[in-house]
Every structure is written in C-alpha cells, then in structure tokens.
From TrEMBL:
Domain FAD dependent oxidoreductase: 5-395
Keyword Flavoprotein part of the UniProt annotation: yes
Superkingdom, natural source: Eukaryota
Keywords: FAD, Flavoprotein, Oxidoreductase
Cofactor: FAD
Protein family: Belongs to the MSOX/MTOX family.
Protein name per its UniProtKB record: FAD dependent oxidoreductase domain-containing protein
Length: 466
C-alpha cells in the first residue's frame, strides 16, 4: 500500500483547488509547493485580482464549468467564514471576501461571441452601444458605434486568498502540505496502469521555508496531479512546445481625483475590451478596489515574450520597464481619459501558460493514467480553478487503474454526481452542472482532455508521447 492516495505537485490556482477537493473526498493527500508561503507572487496566481464572468467569448463549451466554478467559489467563501482555518506554516489564516460582484463588460470585438454565450447559456445580460456604455459607466470612453455586453454576475476574485483558502481548508480536512520543497523528478513504477508513482524532492533554494529535515525525500502515491503551472515543461518535457509560458505585466494607473468615484466597484464593472479593426489589441481591467489604488489594466499577451526554455523561467524580469508601461498605457489613454496622464503606481509580472489553440490542458498522462496533468490554462483559467480542482479530484477518484483505495464518502464530500460518472444517457444540462444534480455535467466538463481529434496542438503533443 502506498503512503499517499494522491500527491499534488504545485499549489497555485489549480493544485490548491485539487488538494482541497481530494481532501474533501476523503483521500490521504499531500501537496508539495516549491515556494513559501502558498499564495506567493512568483507563479501565475497573484496580483490581487482575477476576472470571473459567465458569458464566455472564448467558447460555448466553458459554460457548465464556469457556472459550477462560480457556485464553488461562493461555497468556499462561506466555508472559510464558518471554519476559519489556520494558515500554513505559521502564516495567519486566510480571511475576508473571496469575490466582489461588480458586473462585467465585454466591449468591442469580443461582444459577438460573449453575447452568443450569454444567450446559449440563458445568462442575464444587456446589450449596450458604446454611447450607452460611456453614459452609464463614465470611467470609459469607447467609440460610440461599438457594442458591449453587460453581465451583472461578473466580478473580481482575490487569487492569493483563494489559493490560501483552498490549502488551509484542505489541511483542516487532513491534507499534508509541504512548502519550500521542490519535486525534482517523478516516475511511475512500471508500465501498468495501476503502478504507484514515486516522486523525489529537494529543498527549494529560493525560499526561507522550513523544509523536510533531510532537505529532500522520496514519496510515493497511487496518483499524482502535476499542476506546476509554467514549470510543466520542466516536469513533462514532451509538453514544452505545447504549453508555452509567456511573461505578462499588469499595471495600476493613477486616476485623477475628481473622477475616482467613477472607477469605484459600484460604478465600474470588470471588463475586457478588444479593439475593432485590423491589428486591434485586447485589454482587460478592474475598478479601483482593495489595497492597491489605481485603475488596474492588462494587455492580453503583453509584449509576446515567450519563455521556451523552462530553465529561463526563474530569471524572467519581475519589474516593469518603459516598454511594459508603454504597452499598458496605450489602453489607458485610449479608453480611460481620467487616468490617461496618471502615474504608473504599481506593476506586477506573472506568467500565462499558453496552448496553441488557447484552451486548457487537463488530462491523464498518455502513458501513465494515474498521473494527471493540469496546465496550461492559457491566461484565462483562474475563474475555473474551483471547478477544475473538483474535476481533477473526480479524475483521481475514478482512478482508471490507479491504486487509490478510499471510497468516496457517502455525504459531505464530492457531490452525488461525482460517484457515478455518466457514461451514457441524456446529455447533462448547464443547470444540472450548476446544481450539481445527480449524474450531471461531468462529461461536459471534460472537453479539455488530450483529444487527437480536432485539436491540432494536442494531437501534436500526443505524437510526442508516442
Ligand atoms: C497577469 C495575469 C492575469 C490573469 N487574469 C486572469 C483573469 O482575470 N481571470 C482568469 O480566470 N484567469 C486569469 N489569469 C490566468 C490564471 O491566473 C492562471 O491560469 C492560473 O493562475 C494558473 O494557475 P496554475 O496553478 O496553473 O499556476 P501557478 O499559479 O503558477 O502555480 C504553479 C505552482 O507550482 C509550483 N511549482 C512549480 N514547479 C514545482 C516543483 N517542481 N515542485 C513543487 N512546486 C512547483 C510553483 O511554485 C507554483 O506555486 C491571469 C494570469 C496572469 C498571469
């Protein structure tokens, strides 16, 4: 019998959520994170805010997962308030709201696809012209003929707090957590589908955390979740060309005093704005809120700085330079006149990990089904991390040949739907997925697996594993 049912490698957005759902399902689980504390600013899950929205221009297939994730974040917030877990490694326990509802605007080029998604999934929404948007939300100044979708359910998630909440609650449920420890290698013991997986770890040089006394160890588990974010290419070299990290910078720009009220969360929704016309850029941003003042703005794919060699990830520059500021300022001065001449107050660098088709990679390792791969999320995955964590836990528990032995708890663990995967029968509806009704939603939640059909990028990756 292996010591752990499952080990999760990397406790960012996805690993922390997977750890929580695995612990909730009653599994003996260990989470290993290279940095300390969890919720650090060296990966992809920091920067004080992430957009959550339900109408999704990126694809209709995300609808059920988005609704499930939205509900799970609300439940997480309630659970955190009720159970008040201690923090990890002597850190204060996470507290405070995890979600702030502001509404969401999909402006310009993204309107059509977002609107289609809102209609297809029966979501509350309004269609605005640019002129109407400018009148109703005076922080904005967009061309009057553009169109925008307003979805009242959009808002801001607090990423560091959510990661910490998932980890702290998982620990309360019995999960073990090691920070300041890096997994240096892994291997499945033999080729059988049920073979245990062995991981070797070392003390991580970049942290002051308390580490296993030996400075490293060997652990084994029936299943392993590899969720190291941009470092996935280090752990699974076959994925290097499929999951490519990219440096991103977001900035907070000073807003002139008389207009600040227009940038408050009750007056300014979160937004994505893709410029119309050829060569248009896509910006996204947030109202002023929380501890950092200013209009927060990002530019999708920023300066297009791809990091193809994982060894270079730790050397990526973390501060913003003039080119970073200029890229962000184009969006500020183009559409937010009251911030156009404001100073850059703060900036934060982070990683997207992109697939060629811009979708996610969540699947079993083709040669070792007991190893679940979760990365990349192509710069738009945080809002689905709660649902993806639950999905990963389900994949582990389904355990195609893994040595996971724990039965799912009869109550209080995974939803009923998790216990009996719907392999046939009627297609689950979006409402089923939201309510977590019996046998609902899971098939729809797995459109992100390695699937040679119809996904050029993923097919290429499969060949590499071959
Ligand atoms: C600037 C920016 C803005 C974004 N905006 C949004 C948004 O508005 N909405 C949205 O939904 N999404 C957004 N995203 C995307 C989203 O934040 C990411 O998809 C998500 O946070 C990725 O999480 P992750 O767990 O894959 O990676 P990470 O958060 O990087 O976590 C991976 C973890 O693994 C650890 N690790 C790596 N290697 C090892 C090892 N060998 N051993 C142990 N631990 C290891 C790392 O230290 C890290 O903590 C944004 C991303 C960025 C960068």
């Amino acid at each position: 019998m292996v010591p752990y049912d499952a080990v999760v490698v990397g406790l960012g957005a996805f690993g922390s959520a997977a750890l929580y759902h695995l612990a909730k399902a009653g599994l003996k689980v260990l989470g290993i994170e290279r940095h300390h504390p969890v919720g650090h600013a060296l990966g992809s899950s920091h920067g004080a805010s992430r957009i959550i929205r339900l109408a999704y221009f990126e694809g209709l297939q995300y609808g059920p997962l988005l609704k499930r994730s939205y509900r799970l974040f609300q439940e997480l917030e309630e659970e955190l308030a009720e159970r008040r877990p201690a923090g990890h490694g002597g850190e204060p326990g996470p507290s405070g709201p995890l979600f702030l509802r502001t509404g969401m605007l999909d402006v310009g080029n993204v309107f059509e696809a977002a609107h289609k998604s809102a209609v297809a999934h029966g979501l509350q929404h309004e269609v605005l012209t640019g002129a109407e948007l400018n009148r109703r939300f005076p922080a904005f100044r967009v061309p009057e003929h553009w169109r925008a979708l307003y979805q009242p359910d959009g808002g801001v998630l607090t990423p560091e707090r959510i990661v910490q909440a998932h980890v702290a609650l998982a620990q309360q449920l019995g999960a073990e957590v090691a920070t300041g420890e890096a997994v240096t290698s892994w291997r499945a013991e033999g080729r059988s589908a049920g073979a245990p997986v062995t991981l070797t770890t070392a003390a991580a040089a970049t942290t002051s955390a308390t580490v296993a006394a030996s400075g490293g160890r060997v652990v084994s588990a029936g299943a392993v979740v590899l969720s190291p974010g941009p470092w996935i290419g280090q752990m699974v070299p076959e994925l290097r060309e499929l999951c490519v990290p990219e440096r991103q910078v977001v900035g907070w720009f000073e807003v002139e005093a008389p207009s600040r009220r227009h940038f408050a969360p009750d007056r300014m929704p979160v937004w994505v704005l893709e410029e119309e016309g050829p060569g248009g850029e896509a910006f996204y941003g947030f109202p002023e809120h929380g501890e950092l003042p200013g209009l927060k703005i990002g530019l999708y794919h920023h300066l297009r700085e791809q990091i193809r060699n994982p060894a270079d990830l730790d050397a990526v520059r973390r501060t913003a330079d003039a080119a970073d500021e200029a890229a962000l300022r184009r969006g500020v001065s183009g559409y937010f006149p009251a911030a156009a001449s404001g100073r850059l107050l703060h900036a934060s660098a982070c990683f997207f990990t992109n697939t060629p088709d811009g979708h996610f990679l969540i699947d079993r390792h083709p040669a070792h089904p007991q190893v679940i791969l979760c990365s990349a999320c192509s710069g738009h995955g945080f809002k689905m991390s709660s649902g993806i964590g639950q999905l990963i836990a389900r994949m582990v528990c389904e355990g195609e040949g893994t040595t996971v032995t724990h039965a799912l708890p009869a109550a209080g663990g995974m939803p009923t739907s998790a216990r009996a995967p719907p392999r046939s029968g009627r297609a689950a509806t979006a409402e089923d997925a939201v309510s977590g009704g019996a046998d609902s939603g899971w098939e729809e939640l797995v459109p992100f697996r390695f699937d040679a059909a119809g996904r050029p990028g993923h097919a290429e990756a499969l060949q590499r594993f071959g």
